[in-house]
Amino acid sequence: MTDHLELKAYGKINLGLDVVRKREDGYHEVRMIMQTVNLYDKIVMEKTSEPGIRTETNLPYVPDGEGNLAYRAAKLLADEFEIKDGVTIRIKKYIPVAAGMAGGSTDAAAVLVGMNRLFGLGLSKKELMKRGVKLGADVPYCIMRGTALSEGIGEILTELPPAPQCHVVLAKPQVSVSTKVVYGKLRANELKPEQHPDIDGMRHAIENNDLDGVISRLGNVLETVTIPDHPEIGTMKEILMAEGAEGALMSGSGPTVFGIFKDEEAAKHACEVLKKADGGRLTRQVYLTRFFNLRKSDR
After folding, report:
1. For range 122-138, the mean pLDDT
2. What is the CATH number of domain 4-159?
3. Class of the domain covering 167-298
4. Contact between residue 178 and residue 102 where contact means Cβ atoms under 8 Å apart
């Protein structure tokens, strides 16, 4: 055991996001291909003799205390295991907030992992994932990381081989989107067959290390809601494609857009074009990254 930990909480994108139907209980049944990217928040956790959980972030609009999912993750395990010591959690945010990249969920996932290590709880990854779903549907995936098929309401996960590597440009327009609002507006049972992405085909392409096959199947049914409300998302996709992206898509419920590039120089140029678009008013958050999978070549 240790009294101090430094952790990386990695963001994710959705290579494919399909909503199969809206269930009678109000939840949406999904099928998604999730992919971790090498953009992460930094989390420092310290055990303290003074009881209680304290959270600090570098962004004034990210809540502390009960309003922060990372706080609730620490409290979940502190309550279950009757932990008497306290813990301080410092979060340095790099993943865009309210952006469709699971920033809050991945911070919570990292804190679950950190609490397990700090206090020697002895929980396996599967046991942590089982607890994580109590905090949110994306939390178990953020503990798993890598390339995965997500089903049910997002809690049924199947680990896939690492997706073929590429260069990824991420850009968030200067709007924030509520996942709850987007799903509330979606008419899942009225979607046309051609609006549903080919999730099985994408899985097959990943298993065959076929990047072109992955790119040709990029799709997200939530774009049908978010792009009409926020046309700048469509504008960013157009810029990425014009600058040489092989494919471009909104991640999650948005508004972050990503472009997949085979050529690194083209990807770098696309970043500069996005930063200058509309006189710099379209976005201030642009990142060039790659897929992250748990193998040495991708770390």
Report:
1. 95
2. 3.30.230.10
3. alpha beta
4. no
